[in-house]
């Protein structure tokens, strides 16, 4: 596969933002506590002016069947979040992205991709749980529940039972949930997301990408996301 020449720029940009406010493949596994605002502080500047991504980068960022939490027909821009449900910084990013969904409505498509890191033993199972819930239209509900109880299941040896209990509490069809959760199709979806992230050169979570530009977002300061979005969308 021939990589787009701009793909390494995404990787280099990300490397410069992983020092604070992110989980990386080189970090120590966390018995998670909520990160302080100081620990997650980042510059609000984007790496470069967002532009329409090349066909190859666009394919890696946003495959046709990508999960969305906002998919307006005439969106002016696309925001992609690569997340790891066992990463505490991703838990903080969720509320920021939900706020952007509410604020930008029909102007912004928001895609959620999985990137469970090797340092997080239970992250792949959590990703499969969210994906299985998404099959019943409950991606956001399960994602919120999984993050809310992150300290509980992240150290558990019986995550399957816990995720099934969450599905039951959310009123999902538990038989279908379990079938999807254990399915090869869902496992392959999670693996494909991870492979796309690695092909892009990403090395940690959460990673927010506007068009083909990695954004440095401080979860304690919404303006670090709204400012580049306003600039791009001409708000």
Kindly describe this structure.
The protein is an alpha+beta fold and 235 residues long. Helices cover 46% and strands 12% of the residues. It contains ten helices and seven strands. Strands 2-4-3-6-7 form a five-stranded mixed sheet, with helices on both faces. It has a two-stranded antiparallel ribbon with strand order 1-5. Strand 3, helix 3 and strand 4 form a beta-alpha-beta unit. Helix 4 runs antiparallel to helix 5. The protein is globular, with a radius of gyration of 17 Å. The N terminus is likely disordered.
What do the pLDDT scores average to?
84
What is the count of helical runs? 10
Biggest pleated sheet: 5 strands, mixed
Mind telling me the C-alpha Rg? 17 Å
Task: Work out the strand percent.
Answer: 5-15%
Q: What is the strand arrangement across the widest sheet? A: 2-4-3-6-7
CATH topology: Glutaredoxin
Instruction: Kindly state the percentage of residues in helix.
Output: 40-55%
| CATH fourth-tier homologous superfamily | Glutaredoxin
Using the coordinates above, name the CATH class: Alpha Beta
**What structural class should be given to the helix and strand makeup?**
alpha+beta
Low-pLDDT windows of residues: 1-9, 11-20, 27-49
Alpha carbon gap, first and last residue = 38 Å
Q: What is the element string, with H for helices and E for strands?
A: HEHEEHEHHHHHHEEEH
CATH architecture: 3-Layer(aba) Sandwich
């Amino acid at each position: 596969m021939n990589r787009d020449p701009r793909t390494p720029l995404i990787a280099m940009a990300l490397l410069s933002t992983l020092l604070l406010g992110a989980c990386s493949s080189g970090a120590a596994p966390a018995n998670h506590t909520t990160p302080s605002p100081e620990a997650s502080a980042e510059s609000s500047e984007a790496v470069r002016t967002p532009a329409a991504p090349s066909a190859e980068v666009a394919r890696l960022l946003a495959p046709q069947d990508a999960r969305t939490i906002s998919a307006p027909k005439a969106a002016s821009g696309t925001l992609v979040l690569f997340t790891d449900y066992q990463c505490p910084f991703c838990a903080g990013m969720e509320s920021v992205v939900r706020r952007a969904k509410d604020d930008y409505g029909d102007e912004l498509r928001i895609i959620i991709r999985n990137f469970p890191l090797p340092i997080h033993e239970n992250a792949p199972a959590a990703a499969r749980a969210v994906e299985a819930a998404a099959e019943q239209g409950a991606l956001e509900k399960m994602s919120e529940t999984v993050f809310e109880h992150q300290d509980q299941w992240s150290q558990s040896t019986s995550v399957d039972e816990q995720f099934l209990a969450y599905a039951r509490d959310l009123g999902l069809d538990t038989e279908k949930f379990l079938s999807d959760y254990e399915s090869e199709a869902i496992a392959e979806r999670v693996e494909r997301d991870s492979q796309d992230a690695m092909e892009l050169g990403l090395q940690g979570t959460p990673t927010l990408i506007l068009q083909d530009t990695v954004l440095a977002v401080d979860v304690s300061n919404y303006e670090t996301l709204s400012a580049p979005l306003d600039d791009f969308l001409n708000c």
